[in-house]
Amino acid sequence: MALKGFNVMLQAEDAVGECFVSYGVVAADADAAAKLAEGAALSEGFWAVEIEDAWEPEPEEGDEPLGDIPEVLGRTEPTYLDEDDFDID
To answer: What DSSP assignment string belongs to 35-74?
Structure first.
């Protein structure tokens, strides 16, 4: 069974503060993708992890099948909620 690619956005917290982080995941459905992303975030040291959204992106021409092994492909760098509040002098 070929799996699908999903993007999963999470709100979490780390040592710097509250942030949003997104994961690229291969899974059977959006719920499974969200669970994989949540586990990856927790294993990377994020806490207070909440799933914001999980969606299947539009396929691009030339995309190859993703296979049949559920996995986390990668993540974005965290975007912190209070980045505009930093005052660097």
So the answer is: HHHHHHHHHTT-EEEEEEEEE-PPPPTTPPP--S--EEEE
Q: Is residue 88 part of a domain?
A: no
What are the angstrom distances between the C-alpha of 65 and each of 1, 6, 24, 74, 89? 10, 13, 15, 17, 49
Q: Does residue 53 lie in a domain region?
A: yes
Q: Enter the pTM of the model.
A: 0.86
Average pLDDT, the chain: 90
Question: Distance between CA atoms of 9 and 34, rounded to whole angstroms?
Answer: 8
Q: How many domains are there within the chain?
A: 1
